[in-house]
Amino acid sequence: MSSSVLLESPETGIARVVLNRPERRNAQNPQMLYDLDEALAIAVRDRTVRVIILAGAGPDFSAGHDLNERDSRIPGPSVATLEGAFDADGVEGRHAFECEAYLGMCRRWRDLPKPTIAQAHGRCIAGALMLLWPMDLIVAGESATFSDPVAAFGLNGAEYFTHVWEVGARKAKEMLFTGAPVTAADAHRLGMVNHVVPDDDLADFTLDLARRIARMPEYALRLAKSSVNNSLAAQGQDVALESAFALHIAGHANNLSRHGDIIDPGGVDTIRALSRQAPERAP
C-alpha cells in the first residue's frame, strides 16, 4: 500500500482509512483505489477492528476521478471481478476496467462485513460519491457539498448509480441535469447524510459515533447490515446499477466516436466552473 491512502488506529476497535492525495484534492487514480481496497481489506481481516471510518486529508474529501489518468491499466491483479482485456482497443478495455475498478470495487466496499462510516468534508464531486455511498453511514461537515456534474462529459452520472436511493428521483434528476452541488443540510434533509456537524467537530463526532457502534455485538452488526443491504437488493438496486452502468459505457463509446476520448473534452471547463459554484440553499 502506497502513501496515497493511510490506515490509522485512532483507538481500540476502530480503524480510520484516509485518502491522502491532498495536493490533488484526493482525486482518484487507479493506485489510490487499489490502496483504498487494500486498507479496507486489512481492517476487515483484523478481528480487533469493529468499525471502519473513511476520511480524506486536505481541504476536500475528494474531487472525483483524476482526469489526468484516464487509461485502463490497473496496478496489480483484479480483486473485485474476474475481468481481463484491460488493454483491449476501443471501449472494450475501458469497459473491463470500470467493471473492476469502479462498479466492482464499490459493490465490494458496500458489502464489507463490518460497519463503515464516511466522514465527508469540503467538496465531494462525482467519483467521490462512489466512495461515500457504499459506506453504511455518512457524517458531513456543515460546509461539505455533494455533486455529480458528469453530464457535462456526455455521461449519465457516476458509475455507482445509486442516486435515486440516496436523494430520491426528482432531486437525482436535478443533480444530474444541472451539475450543481447539494449542501450538507439538504443532503441531510433528503436522507443521504446521517448527521451534519460543525466542520471543527467532524472528526470527533465521527469517532464518537464509531465508538458507540463498536459497543454493539459484532455478529449482530453484521446481520443487521446484511438485512438492510438485502432489502436494497430486493428493491432492485443491483439491477438498476447494471442498467445505469451499461448506459455509462455507451456514453464512453459515443464520446470515443465523436471526440476520440472517453469524455467530451468540452466538459472540463464546465465542471471546473461548477466546482467553484456556491450551492443554492433550500428555503
Automatic annotation (TrEMBL):
It holds the Pfam family ECH_1. InterPro entries: ClpP/crotonase-like_dom_sf, Enoyl-CoA_hydra/iso. Coiled coil: none annotated. GO terms for molecular function: catalytic activity. Belongs to the enoyl-CoA hydratase/isomerase family. This is Enoyl-CoA hydratase. It comes from Saccharopolyspora shandongensis.
